[in-house]
Amino acid sequence: MSLIQPIIEQIEKRDPNETEFHQAVQEVLYSLEKVIDAFPAVQFHKVVERMVEPERVVSFRVPWVDDNEDLQINRGFRVEMNSALGPYKGGLRLHASVNQSIMKFLAFEQVFKNSLTGLSLGGGKGGSDFNPKGKSDLEVMRFCQSFMTELYRHIGEHTDVPAGDIGVGAREIGFMFGQYKRITNQFTGVLTGKGLGWGGSLIRPEATGYGLIYFSSHMLETRGDTFEGKTCLVSGSGNVAQYTIEKLLELGAKVVTISDSSGFIYDAEGIDRAKLDFIMELKNVRRGRVAEYEQKYPQAVYTATRQNADHNPLWDIKADCAFPCATQNEINEKDAKNLMKNGIMLVAEGANMPTCEEGVKIFLDKGILYGPAKATNAGGVAVSGLEMAQNSSRMVWTRERVDTELQKIMKSIHGMCIEYSSQYSTEGNYVDGANIAGFIRVANAMLDQGYI
Questions:
Q1: Is residue 378 situated within a structural domain?
Q2: Is pLDDT above 60 for 40?
Q3: How far is CA 340 from CA 233, 317, 359, 375, in A?
Q4: What is the CA radius of gyration of the chain?
Q5: Averaged pLDDT for residues 356-368
Q6: pLDDT tens digit string along 73-113?
Q7: Please, are residues 331 and 354 in contact by the beta-carbon 8 Å criterion?
Q8: Fewer CB within 10 A of the terminal residue: the chain, N end or C end?
Q9: Would 140 be classed as within a structural domain?
Q10: Distance (Å, rounded) from C-alpha 397 to C-alpha 202?
Q11: Backbone angles phi, psi at 25, to 5 degrees
C-alpha cells in the first residue's frame, strides 16, 4: 500500500472542508511518491506527517470603525507552517475569499517555494477576509492598525516576517509597519515590501513578475527558443501581472490581455509601454477597473466576468504563452483544454496554484512547458529575503545588484527543477522537480532537528 494515501485520507478526515489545502497537499505528495526510496520508510512517513500539519495556526477577530462610525468585524489569520529552514516567511492577503483553508494551502506552498530559493526562510501565510476595494484610506488604516494590534505578538524579524499579497501593497504594509513600531517601540525588518525610504528594497514590487519571466526564459532555452515575437496571455492586473508584462515587452513579446475581478481586456494590437503605464496608473493610483482601458483604447474589447461560467474566455484566445497571475484555480479543465486547442506552448504561473488539478494533468500529458507557481513565482519571496538581508546590515543595495541576485536565484531554481526531475521523474517535469527539490531540503533539516 502507498505510504502517501493514508496521509491524504488522514488530512481529509481531520479537516474535511479545506478543499484548497487538500488540493495543494495532494499535488505535492503525488510527486513525493517518487522519492520514498530515498528515505527510510519510517523517517519519510514521520517527516511528511509533520510537514502537512502547521506548527501554529492563529485566528483572531479584527474590529475596526468605518467612515460612518459603524463597528465592523473581520477575521484575521496567520498560519506558521514550517520553520525548519528559518523564520516563517510569507505574505498577508486581504480579500473577501480568505478562510483557513486558503491560508493553509498558501502556507504549505510557501514552505516549498522558500526552500527552492536556497535562502534561510521557513514558510507561513496570513491575512483577513477584509476587502480593501472601495474603502477609504482612513478605513484601510484603521483596519490595518487593528489587525497588527493582534498580529504583532506572533511575528518578529527572527520569528515570522510577513509581506504583501493580494490586497496588500505599499499602503497597507506602511500602515501595519507603523502600528508594529508604535506598539513595540522597535524599528526592525519585521515586514518586507516596505517603502524605499524606510527599509524597502529596490526591485521588490517587480520581483515576482520579473522572476516569472526569468524562469520562463530558461524554460524556453531548453527548447532553443526565446520570447521574441511570442503572443502572450496575462491574467490579473496587479503588481505581478504589471511587471510580467513589462519584462515580456523588454524581451520582444506581445501581450494581448489583462484582467481583474470585473472582467478582462483583449487588445489584439498588443499592450505597449504607453498602455502599460496607463494600466499602472489606473490600478496603482486610482484603483480603477480594467473596463476603463476600453474607454481609453477603443480598439480593445472588454468582456465582463460571467457568474458561474464553466470557463474563462480569456484562456480561449489564440496565443503562444499563458501567464495566470490573478488567483487560485482560475484555469479549470475546460480552460486548459482551450489553451491546448489554441496552440499554447508554455504556461507559467504567476499566481499561487492558479491551475486546477485536472488542468495540470492536461498540461503534463500534452508535454508543454508548464511551470508551477512554487518555482515560477518564487522571485517575490526571494527579493523579500534579500530585503531582510539589507535590513539586518542596515545597507541598501543597488537596483542592479538586487536584479542580478534575483536572476541568479531563478536560474538556480530552474536548474534544480531540471536536476531533480531528471533524477526522480521525467526530465522537464517541473512539477515533480520543484516539489522534490523543495521537499528534500526541508525534510533533511527536519530530520536533523528531531521530532519537534
A1: no
A2: yes
A3: 13, 11, 10, 22
A4: 21
A5: 97
A6: 999 999 999 999 999 999 999 999 999 999 999 999 999 99
A7: yes
A8: N
A9: yes
A10: 8
A11: -65, -45
What sign does the CA torsion over 182, 194, 98, 5 have?
A: negative
| pLDDT for res 1 | 47
pLDDT per position as a tens digit, 167-210: 999 999 999 999 999 999 999 999 999 999 999 999 999 999 99
Rounded CA-CA distance 105/352 in Å is 9
Q: How confident is the model at residue 43 (pLDDT cuts 50, 70, 90)?
A: confident
Q: Which residues pair with 62 in a beta bridge?
A: 74
The pLDDT-based confidence of 403 (bands split at 50, 70, 90) is very high
Residues 9, 39 within the same domain: yes
Q: Is the pLDDT of residue 25 over 70?
A: yes
Q: Is 275 known to be catalytic?
A: no
CA–CA separation, 238 vs 290, rounded Å?
Answer: 11
Query: Has residue 217 been placed in a domain?
Result: yes
CA gap 164, 156 in Å, rounded? 16
Chain length of the chain: 452
Say if residue 178 is in the same domain as residue 260: no
CATH of residue 306's domain is 3.40.50.720
Catalytic residue among 89, 113, 125, 275: 125
Residue 354 lies in a domain: yes
